[in-house]
Amino acid sequence: MLVLHDEATRLHQTVELLGPRFKKALECPERIEEIFKALQNDGSHSVRILDAVGGAKGSGTDDLHVDPSVLAKLLSDTHDQGYLEHLRTTHEDWVANGLIGEDECVFPECFYVHGMCKPGGEHPPPKDRFARPGYYAFDMSAGIAKNTWVSAHASANLAAVGGRLIASSEPSAAAPHGNNVLALCRPPGHHCTTKLAGGYCYINNAVVAVESLRHHRKEHASGLGSPKMAILDVDFHHGNGTQAAFYDDPSVLYVSIHGQDEYPYFSGAEDEVGEGRGHGYNVNLPLAADSPIDAYLGKLDMAIQKMQEFGPSHMLVSLGFDTFFLDPMGCFDLHALDYKVIARRVRQAEGLKDIPSLILLEGGYVVERLGENMLQFLKGWEEP
Ligand code: SP5
Ligand code: ZN
Questions:
Q1: 3-state secondary structure of 7
Q2: b vs e for 115-142, b when ≥16 Cβ sit within 10 Å of the residue's Cβ?
Q3: Ligand 2 centroid distance, CA of 255 (Å)
Q4: 174 C-alpha to center of ligand 2: Å?
Q5: pLDDT tens sequence across 194-238
Q6: Is the entire prediction scored with pTM above 0.85?
Q7: Structural contact between residues 259 and 286, judged by C-beta atoms closer than 8 angstroms
Q8: Are 16 and 25 in contact (CB under 8 A)?
């Protein structure tokens, strides 16, 4: 397993509205520090430290690098340009105008909710400084802090490099590392849409990875045909942003196992099956609260079957550990060893065995158990 890490992912630090007050966000820098530490101590994975601007640190090679202009293009293929500008400039703008201190966060004042504008209409981005955060977010868990852009950009870069690496590897090929890549993304990505941040997510790393795979497949390996990507989202929460990005796209299968009727509340039902040419290529498998591993594996087998029917050339896992029994954000009853079972079952399924895979970190908030959970997952994934 090649593990991609960037120290800039630790810089972003924010607060969130939990119940009646703002608290230090559960999505915190220590999450990455714990996983990184566990991987280093374990020693059985090759950990490469990147930096979003300079490429791979201390390496003369450029295979762990995506050109800044290409990355910019991948981001604008994934998100609205005004939204990206907002993420990049708003904190600085609010500080410069004396609205917040350097260490405070930008939060929405008024959300842009459907039906507020004329029916079927769409309001253009507002000029008012206080209106913009609510135009570009859907909840109060995506405040913009001093380093939010730096970290989100670095996180997206890891996903883009991951997409590039799996683009150049072939099923079964003895690629030195291209067949199994893990990107330690932070902040996570699966909740944000083209122009809405939310649920700790600012840039949709899974969408960036797919765009990167497509781009590099075209650029450098045109003989290989266009990729068919299966996305398996096992974060406790439904990945509404990733679903939305590929809802009408038959070349990307999105499959999610998530808590039924849980956050983000308004997506993730079984009858969301895709539309147009993408009909049948979106599979939601909601699972009841308190479910233990047996019930989980029932859903997982359905997910595996759907992916096998699809016949992917590549596979992406949106990996969240908020399914852990102690997680404050989730309510499944999964334990460390269960992650090994889950990973092994997916990776050993016929048709999913040898295809190039990219694993992206999403949620998981029991900081001191993240390292152990990740190691178990990787053990199962790489079991011969
Ligand atoms: C990436 C990711 O895991 N984002 C999740 C953000 C979830 N925020 C939810 C806030 C509402 C929590 N309500 C408490 C219910 C506990 N069962
Ligand atoms: Zn989650």
A1: helix
A2: eeeeeeeeeebeeeeebbbbbbbbbebb
A3: 15
A4: 34
A5: 999 999 999 999 999 999 999 998 876 556 678 999 999 999 999
A6: yes
A7: yes
A8: yes
